[in-house]
Every structure is written in structure tokens, then in C-alpha cells.
Specification:
Layout: E1 11-13, H1 21-34, E2 37-44, H2 45-48, H3 53-60, E3 66-74, H4 78-87, E4 95-99, H5 103-113, H6 124-138, E5 143-146, H7 156-167, E6 175-179, E7 183-184, E8 187-188, H8 191-208, H9 212-218, E9 228-231, H10 232-235, H11 246-257, E10 263-267, H12 287-305, H13 312-340, H14 346-369, H15 380-386, H16 390-403
Parallel strand pairs: 1-10, 2-3, 2-5, 3-4, 6-10
Antiparallel strand pairs: 5-9, 6-9, 7-8
Helix pairs in contact: 1-7, 5-16, 6-16, 8-13, 11-12, 12-14, 13-14
Length: 404
């Protein structure tokens, strides 16, 4: 599966050979002396009952270079939180669970809300943001990685390859984005990236002209992966969206704050499969329907910040260009799937492209209707400026939940 092409503005770290996992982990053990590492696991309680989380925890318990594991737990009541504590006891590393729906962390949230700095909606972005706050408050590590908790093909190499670029002393990256190809059970997956993000970026270049930001975003082979790692100095000033634009928003913020040579993407898995979202054609607030709208809004907001002037006419042109580009790319995906012996339903994917084209227009309508919307959560440096003891409140709440 490997190649060695370096295209785009950022470094691409390929899997050029099957290097033994033991070698990677030995080098990470050495690096951990100077750069301790924390893993963040944002999860829903329901994922503890799914097929992926148990094997993930079993494999993580064998990782020796981690200083700490921080688990963000969403949608859990008291009994479910107690079960989660028992569930994660098999981890051999020090670990903390942020019970995001518990009364103590809700009180912290209420404090932050006094000055309007709290996340404006529940979801993965909010979960990750609080875990980042705890990472800063704990002060245990100098590097942080995050991956999803529904990966049914999880292997330890994923984590080692994710951390390696930002902690190895010979490298100079502050942020690493994981990438992989998406196929499982004989089917080509990754619909939102293949059918929305990739053709939309091409269409934006055609309608708006190539610029530094679009070239940067086009450099990522899988911009929507939920796996990334960063140095601690990145975390305090990073603003992330609270909606489905989390991954695009995070990459956009890295573009704003750091030179491209400090950012890389790394091949972290030969096989990757996780939970698939429904398309939800009839419900714009769920599934890929909502995800696609939030992603389009993330791109629009970033381009507007950079000075792009949008108009209804421009959106109509962009939609038409996107639609034709996506259909052309679908032909390539179909050929790729046929040669690989994978299934790809061209009619179904064409319908999904039509839905994504509608999502693009809806994103434009929301942009015009709410020009003052602020989807990004405040950075932790700003929150600490407003509430100097907030990180202590956060760690005290987590410790009290752990002890109760």
C-alpha cells in the first residue's frame, strides 16, 4: 500500500516498510523520558458496550510509554459512570475519567458559562475540549494524542505511529494527522471525504482561485480522520469547533498558527474500520446530512476569515462546480473499487453527492442568516485568563468523581 510521494505543503510520513512494532515502541520509550505522552479517548458510554472498546482497552494496557490516559465520557448517568470506572480498571497506566454529565463537571461548565465561554453544544468537540483542559491542568505530559473509540480494527501500531513524529528528537513537528484508506467487508468507505471534502476543495480552487489555505487543506490524504497528535504548546491556544466540523476546524487552526513544515500526516493503519453514520436524508440534524453541512460551514467560515467575500451567486456557482467535480471523481472511485474487487453502488453514491450539494447550499444559507455565529470554543488560554483557577476546579472535580 505504501508509496513515497511528497505532494502538497506538509510532510507525509509513509509506511515504507513493515518496521517491527517493538522497534517503534522502544524508540518511544526512550523519547518519553524527555517528552512524556498522554492519550485522550473521547467516548460515548454506548461505545463501552460495543465491539470495539473492549479490545482497544486490552491492547492499550500493553503500551508502556504512556504517562497517562484521559477518558472523556459522554451520555452516562451515575450507574453507567460506575460501570465505566470498572471497565477501565484493566488499564495498566494511570488514567482519569471525565464524567462530562456528572454534577461536578456540570458545575465547572456553569462557571465557564458565566462569561459565555462554555461550549455551545454537546458532542465530540466539547468532550475533546474538556479533555484538553484536563491535559493542561494535569501537567503530566508534553505531548497528547487522540483517537476514536469505535475502531474495530485497532492495533497498537496506530498509536505508536501517531505519536512518533511529534516526540522523536530527530523530528521537528508539533502536529501529526493520521491517515489511512477506508474499506471493510468488501466495500469502499470514507464517503464524506471522498464525495464531499475532496471534490469540494477542487471546486473551491476552480471558483475562488488557488490560495495558500486551499493548497494546505488539499495536502491531507484523509482530513476527516479522528486521529491526531500535538505538542503541549499547541493545546492551550487551540480553538476547536463543537460541531461535526471538529477535524476541519482543527486543521484550519493549525494553518493559522503554525508554518506548514511543523505539521505532518502519517500513515497509521493498513486497515481501518469503525462505526458508520447513516446518511439521514430526511433529517438534516443527524448522520451524514448534518455532518456534511457542518463541514461545509467550517470551510466557509475559514475562507471568510481569510478575506473571501461570499454571495448567493457565488454559492450557486460553487454548488454547480462541486456537483460536476464530485460526479467525475465518482467515476475514478468506481474504477478503483472494481480493480480492487470492492463494492461501490454508483446510484447510491450519486444520491449522496446530491444530498451533499444541498448541504453546501444550506451551509451558505446559515452563513448569511447568522453572520455573528461563533462556532469555535474559546481556547483554554482565554478561559484561564477569565477564570485563573479554572484548571484547578477541573482537576478537583475529576479527582472527586474518581474518589466518590
Amino acid at each position: 500500500m505504501a508509496d513515497f510521494a511528497q505532494g502538497g505543503m506538509i510532510g507525509t510520513l509513509h509506511n515504507l516498510r513493515n518496521r517491527p512494532l517493538e522497534e517503534l515502541e522502544a524508540e518511544l520509550m526512550d523519547a518519553s523520558e524527555e517528552t512524556p505522552m498522554t492519550l485522550v479517548l473521547p467516548c460515548l458510554y454506548s461505545e463501552l458496550e460495543g465491539p470495539a472498546m473492549g479490545p482497544i482497552v486490552e491492547k492499550l494496557s500493553e503500551v508502556k510509554y504512556l504517562k497517562e490516559i484521559v477518558i472523556g465520557l459522554d451520555r452516562a448517568d451515575r450507574l453507567q459512570f460506575e460501570h465505566a470506572r470498572r471497565f477501565f480498571e484493566r488499564l495498566n497506566q494511570p488514567h482519569r475519567i471525565l464524567w462530562n454529565d456528572g454534577p461536578r463537571l456540570r458545575e465547572v461548565d456553569a462557571t465557564i458559562a458565566q462569561k459565555g465561554l462554555e461550549p455551545n453544544e454537546a458532542g465530540k468537540g466539547r468532550n475533546v475540549w474538556y479533555c484538553m483542559g484536563y491535559f493542561l491542568a494535569s501537567g503530566q505530559s508534553k505531548a497528547m494524542a487522540l483517537h476514536d473509540c469505535d475502531i474495530v480494527t485497532y492495533e497498537r501500531e496506530l498509536l505508536s505511529r501517531l505519536f512518533f513524529p511529534i516526540v522523536h528528537p530527530a523530528l521537528n513537528y508539533v502536529f501529526a494527522k493520521g491517515y489511512y484508506y477506508r474499506a471493510a467487508e468488501g466495500r469502499l468507505n470514507g464517503r464524506v471525504f471522498r464525495l464531499l471534502v475532496a471534490p469540494l476543495l477542487r471546486a473551491m480552487k476552480m471558483t475562488l482561485g488557488t490560495n495558500d489555505y486551499l493548497s494546505y487543506m488539499s495536502s491531507f490524504r484523509y482530513a476527516l480522520s479522528g486521529e491526531f497528535a500535538m505538542r503541549s504548546e499547541v493545546v492551550s491556544s487551540l480553538r476547536i469547533p463543537s460541531d461535526w466540523g471538529l477535524e476541519i476546524g482543527t486543521l484550519s487552526e493549525m494553518h493559522r498558527s503554525y508554518a506548514p513544515h511543523r505539521v505532518c500526516q502519517v500513515d497509521i493503519a493498513d486497515a481501518y474500520d469503525h462505526k458508520h453514520q447513516p446518511v439521514s436524508e430526511d433529517n438534516p440534524k443527524q448522520g451524514l446530512h448534518r455532518m456534511s453541512t457542518d463541514i461545509c460551514k467550517a470551510f466557509i467560515r475559514k475562507l471568510a476569515v481569510n478575506g473571501t467575500v461570499f454571495s448567493p451567486e457565488l454559492f450557486r456557482t460553487l454548488k454547480a462546480c462541486y456537483y460536476r467535480t464530485a460526479l467525475d471523481m465518482l467515476d475514478h472511485y468506481y474504477s478503483d473499487a472494481v480493480m480492487a474487487g470492492l463494492r461501490l453502488d454508483r446510484h447510491e453514491e450519486s444520491q449522496t453527492i446530491e444530498l451533499f450539494a444541498q448541504s453546501l447550499m444550506h451551509a451558505g444559507e446559515e452563513f448569511f442568516a447568522h453572520p455573528d455565529a461563533s462556532p469555535f470554543i474559546a481556547s483554554w488560554s482565554r478561559v484561564v485568563s477569565a477564570f485563573p483557577d479554572i484548571l484547578s476546579q477541573l482537576t478537583d472535580a475529576v479527582a472527586a468523581d474518581s474518589a466518590s
